[in-house]
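Researcher: I'm comparing several assemblies side by side, and this is the next one on my list. It has 612 residues spread over two chains. Same procedure as the others: predict the full complex and return the structure.
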Amino acid sequence: MERFEVNILGCGAAFPNQRHMTSGQLVCVHNERFMVDCGEGIQAQIWKFGFKTANLNHIFISHAHVDHFYGLLPFVSSLDLIQNRKSPLHIWLPEDLKEPLEYDFTTYCKLSFPLLMHGIDTCKAAVLYDGRNMTVESIPLNHRTPCCGFLFREKKKPRVLLPQKCLALGIPQTEFGRIKAGADWRKPDGTVIPNSELTTECTFQPRSYAYCSDTSYNPAMIPQIQGTTLLYHEATYLQSEIDQAEKYGHSTAAQAAATARAAAVKQLLIGHFSSRYDDDSLFLKEAQAIFPNTIASNEGMTVEVV
Amino acid sequence: MERFEVNILGCGAAFPNQRHMTSGQLVCVHNERFMVDCGEGIQAQIWKFGFKTANLNHIFISHAHVDHFYGLLPFVSSLDLIQNRKSPLHIWLPEDLKEPLEYDFTTYCKLSFPLLMHGIDTCKAAVLYDGRNMTVESIPLNHRTPCCGFLFREKKKPRVLLPQKCLALGIPQTEFGRIKAGADWRKPDGTVIPNSELTTECTFQPRSYAYCSDTSYNPAMIPQIQGTTLLYHEATYLQSEIDQAEKYGHSTAAQAAATARAAAVKQLLIGHFSSRYDDDSLFLKEAQAIFPNTIASNEGMTVEVV
């Protein structure tokens, strides 16, 4: 199966501590890489763990809090210094962050490749990137500031040709390309054999990855992430501190798990852990009680989307 | 002897790599702490190595290159979040960096303590901070952009009272405070005993620390740093790449050592190592051939100024 995986660069909340760095991930879909959030020090995590940045042309930033974007400028600056990059780099970010970051890049960097910033309306779900094999959609989240998640979806594969059936019908092999692409077959007597009889549905099930951080408990997003293969959901607090979660626009591990259950996702990955707790297994235990197929993020880990 | 030490947080050039983080130090002088430069990820280094930030009221930034200041905003933001700081924080930085950083702090942070930015004219040596026990001066450096180093100097201690001599002269103990502060003694018959006969010079030799990064070979600064106890001097390149050093406004390890020798400093600490070399001992070997009492910076180390 083609590659679809998530590299965890940082999964702590607010500021780096002895256990975790701030938010950042690399999402690898087939031959493309995407960065999602880029807190301070995230580039050092990439070099430390030996993750790759080839074919990284799009970076997605969820919101304008320092722990989610302040590593972006030095990382992009290093792409210039280290890789002598020439190809354009697209940065997708909430509208309110676009102008300040454009100012910073203009003031502090002289890049030798084009940087294209795309403002996101975080209030609505929209396809941001439509690639050959996959799409990236924004997911409206509910935080203290405009914020959205990102949904990476593989595209359906085309129907599969039934070669024996085609040959039995006397269809020349030179026509197979057109039929694979969806064409019907017109016999010499004018009869039309519909494509659905010449091909069969591909058994491949498109996979998907939803990144949802930062957000308070947000049932409004459940229809959009329904059936997602892997859901990353923030779990800043435990249920015992639900008042703090509500106050600061965050979720508890139990709320992340309840969302995963309601959306019937295949697997839940929790992160964005508050440094007030010194044991991540507490988050895992709380979430697994509600949604057993939950794993906890940690720096350097790679999670396959399967 | 009272504390005077340097904590190395990062000593690599340009961008973090598997060996080094970008520039940052804590300088501890008696009961005060100062930060010098603050590259990306420097706060994480403080927490990682367990260094302290108590009594840190002044931060000095040498120049406007990303690897020397881009960790400042998230670090200051964390002082607010973690320590609930209320006392003012002073940031000393080249004039050209003042307006952009004020914009960034206004845009990205809401601090609950006063932040006072002081622009430095990097072309002249000047006392920036005059404390009870020490001063901090700017050192004009020669880089591609306005840049200065910082010289931390302990103040001379006052002369020491000779109590037996004072008592023999019939001076009441209630007068000792005035004499310690420099007063002469007038005997009842009107004769004046000068202070120099009632006190003796303190044997304490004030110590000093000069931070010089980034700079090309810069003999103009030698008079200012003459006799410095500890000199941190950048050594981005080896002598074999002196053309690169000159092109980018940096020094070689040999040039750092030549400066230390010309300034007759007690000890040389080199750093700001380029990632093009994979062995720091090369820098050390080159410098020690010229100035034997040289040590190489490394993250987490503490160097005493003695």
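Model: For your comparison table: Chain A touches chain B through 29 residues (CB under 8 Å).
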